[in-house]
């Protein structure tokens, strides 16, 4: 899809997408959106803002409450300038932040930011907006074919149009990974995280002061899982990976965001007594209140996500996109797939392997 200044003289094309709630749901949408941008060869991608929740202290049913969610600058989660430089140099794609949008749940179950401006930066006139439908669990080739078909029809209808915006809903769980030819991995390597969050995660790893294993202790009320059933399963996986009483265990958990110290202490005691760690620690053990002051919910979750990439080994759950993303980031950072285990979906999940594997690595 060449630009109007390119060899074919064709109109400029941009791609944009909305988001679903939750940190890793947002990250998966960005990775899949950028992968689709690569395949389509668009001139630019318009990135939606970050979305955060007012509190973690909710049930699963309350997550659809529009008042719970608010937009935040994308730079609170991603290093936008670094990404812009990377994508311009490596892929000749201009990344822009959406500056005009509205938070709405109209047409969907959950609130999300929806682009309201049809004029990307640098354009003198509004572009023609073309909604495209990308069902969950698609192939990227089918999504690209649908986009191209709609674009060609629009060009035939208005040959004088200077630019088009292809707009889709959230691309979380968008594509089967074996359909992307490695484009998700390429896109993932072009997603860079906000410097402040990276610094805090590195600080936690440094203050731990040595090797450690990790787990995703995802037993907060909004997940609706049964700890009495799942914790023994996770302990079994830890033993399978060689966790033992000589190495510290880092738990990525939002329990303290609920002020639920009692549950955290209960799980910590079980894990220690089962001999899979010398001690259980969380990020709050290493970061003072003033160090995390002003961070919104998804930034705090990202600190946990990035700390997991430092761990020797990792156990998570297929019920959670966060666990999948942690595994994939570890593999992108060079960890072998054999160092991570996610317990199977029959314990409360419906995720499908082959959709969340953006690193391009399996074992």
Automatic annotation (TrEMBL):
Q: Does the keyword Transferase apply?
A: yes
Q: Which domain of life is it from?
A: Eukaryota
Please list the GO terms describing molecular function: transferase activity
Indicate the transmembrane segments per the record: none
Q: Name one GO biological process term.
A: fucose metabolic process
Return the Gene3D superfamilies for the record: 3.40.50.11350
Tell me the keywords, alphabetical order: Carbohydrate metabolism, Fucose metabolism, Transferase
Similarity comment: family membership: Belongs to the glycosyltransferase GT106 family.
Protein's name in the database: O-fucosyltransferase family protein
Species this protein is from: Chlorella sorokiniana
């Amino acid at each position: 899809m060449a630009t109007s200044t390119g060899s074919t003289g064709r109109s400029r094309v941009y791609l944009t997408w909305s988001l679903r709630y939750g940190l890793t749901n947002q990250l998966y949408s960005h990775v899949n959106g950028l992968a689709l941008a690569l395949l389509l060869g668009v001139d630019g991608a318009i990135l939606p803002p970050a979305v955060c929740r007012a509190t973690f202290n909710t049930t699963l049913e309350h997550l659809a409450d529009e008042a719970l969610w608010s937009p935040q600058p994308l730079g609170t989660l991603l290093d936008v300038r670094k990404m812009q430089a990377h994508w311009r140099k490596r892929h000749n794609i201009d990344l822009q932040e959406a500056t005009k949008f509205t938070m709405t749940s109209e047409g969907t179950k959950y609130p999300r930011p929806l682009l309201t401006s049809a004029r990307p930066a640098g354009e003198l006139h509004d572009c023609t907006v073309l909604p495209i439908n990308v069902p969950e669990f698609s192939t990227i080739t089918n999504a690209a074919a649908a986009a191209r078909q709609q674009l060609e029809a629009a060009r035939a209808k208005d040959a004088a149009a200077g630019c088009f915006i292809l707009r889709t809903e959230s691309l979380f769980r968008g594509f089967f990974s074996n359909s992307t030819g490695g484009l998700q991995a390429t896109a993932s390597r072009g997603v860079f995280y906000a410097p402040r969050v990276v610094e805090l995660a590195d600080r936690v790893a440094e203050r731990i002061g040595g090797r450690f294993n990790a787990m995703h202790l995802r037993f907060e009320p909004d997940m609706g899982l049964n700890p009495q059933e799942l914790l023994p399963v996770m302990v079994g996986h830890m033993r399978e990976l060689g966790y033992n009483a000589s190495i510290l265990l880092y738990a990525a958990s939002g329990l303290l965001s609920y002020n639920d110290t009692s549950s955290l202490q209960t799980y910590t005691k079980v894990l220690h007594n089962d001999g899979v760690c010398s001690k259980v620690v969380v990020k709050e053990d290493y970061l003072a209140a003033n160090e995390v002051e002003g961070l919104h919910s998804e930034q705090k979750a990202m600190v946990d996500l990035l700390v997991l990439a430092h761990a020797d080994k990792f156990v998570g759950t297929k019920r959670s996109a966060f666990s999948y993303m942690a595994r994939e980031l570890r593999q992108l950072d060079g960890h072998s797939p054999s160092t991570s285990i996610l317990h199977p979906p029959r314990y409360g999940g419906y995720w499908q392997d082959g959709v969340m594997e953006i690193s391009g690595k399996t074992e």
